[in-house]
């Protein structure tokens, strides 16, 4: 598979589904540097949408179960995703793989809301709590000239269906508590979507110096809150 294949597949998917995408603030996308893309997440289409928006392949961390299901496993590989290990090794797996890819340098994509908005039906312009793993990665990775880029995906027209039973996914990955419930995994398909590029945050040497001891929690929270607030502000623009 060529390095551009995920981008080509993403464009093909949007065309096949008839999705109309409108991009705003494209000039804010960093060029010629390692980039950590941070975005809200509601649909399997989010990764292809983001690749088409920034016009570059993005390597996304994806859930462990996606590497266990035949067909789905092949799809995530075609999109260039790197599946995480099972729950007990997930954090170490994420840091190891993402750091190596950023040093390439490649563009890494993270959905800090985790899997919950994929399993629970959510409002297109609302976000949940952000996990802080991406901020730890940005501050820990030994990479100069690293940009953290918040991006908001605002769905304007979509259809909502049922994917697969959650109990079936629980059989595949019993370590995931989100699957231990009745109902179906939602299937959200965007028909018209706005993508807003946020203001990149360039990781400073001073932030890395404070990423130790009692100051570490503060600098991690600041970066997490910056991305969350930026995405919420962009989502508030909605559709027009």
Structure in a nutshell:
InterPro entries: Plipid/glycerol_acylTrfase (IPR002123). This protein has 240 residues and is an alpha/beta fold. It has helices at residues 5-17, 46-54, 72-78, 90-102, 116-119, 133-140, 166-172, 205-210, 216-235, and strands at residues 20-24, 34-39, 59-62, 82-83, 107-110, 146-165, 184-197, 201-202.
Q: Could you tell me the radius of gyration in angstroms?
A: 17 Å
Which class do the helix and strand fractions yield?
alpha/beta
N→C terminal distance: 38 Å
CATH topology: Glycerol-3-phosphate (1)-acyltransferase
Overall average residue pLDDT: 85
Question: What is the ordering of alpha helices and beta strands?
Answer: HEEHEHEHEHHEHEEHH
User: How much beta, percentage-wise?
Assistant: 15-25%
Helix content: 25-40%
How many helical stretches? 9
CATH superfamily: Glycerol-3-phosphate (1)-acyltransferase
What is the count of distinct domains? 1
Detail the poorly predicted runs. Answer: none
| CATH classification class | Alpha Beta
| Largest sheet properties | 8 strands, mixed
Q: What gross morphology would you assign? A: globular
Please count the beta strands (DSSP E, at least 2 residues each): 8
Please identify, by name, the CATH architecture.
3-Layer(aba) Sandwich
């Amino acid at each position: 598979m060529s390095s551009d294949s995920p981008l080509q597949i993403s464009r093909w998917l949007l065309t096949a589904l008839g999705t109309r995408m409108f991009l705003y603030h494209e000039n804010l996308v960093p060029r010629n540097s390692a980039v950590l893309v941070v975005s809200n997440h509601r649909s399997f289409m989010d990764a292809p949408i983001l690749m088409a928006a920034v016009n570059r392949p993005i390597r996304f961390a994806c859930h462990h179960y996606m590497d266990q299901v035949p067909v789905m496993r092949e799809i995530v590989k075609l999109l260039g995703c790197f599946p995480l290990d099972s729950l007990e090794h997930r954090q170490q797996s994420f840091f190891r793989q993402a750091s190596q890819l950023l040093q390439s340098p490649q563009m890494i994509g993270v959905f800090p809301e985790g899997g919950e908005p994929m399993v629970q039906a959510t409002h297109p312009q609302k976000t949940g709590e952000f996990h802080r793993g991406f901020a730890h990665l940005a501050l820990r990775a030994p990479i100069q000239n690293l940009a953290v880029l918040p991006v908001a995906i605002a769905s304007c027209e979509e259809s909502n269906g049922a994917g697969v039973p959650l109990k079936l996914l629980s059989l595949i990955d019993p370590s995931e508590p989100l699957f231990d419930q009745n109902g179906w995994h939602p299937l959200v398909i965007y028909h018209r979507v706005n993508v807003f590029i946020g203001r990149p945050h360039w990781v400073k040497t001073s932030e890395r110096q404070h990423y130790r001891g009692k100051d570490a929690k503060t600098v991690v929270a600041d970066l997490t809150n910056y991305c969350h607030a930026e995405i919420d502000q962009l989502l508030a623009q909605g559709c027009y």
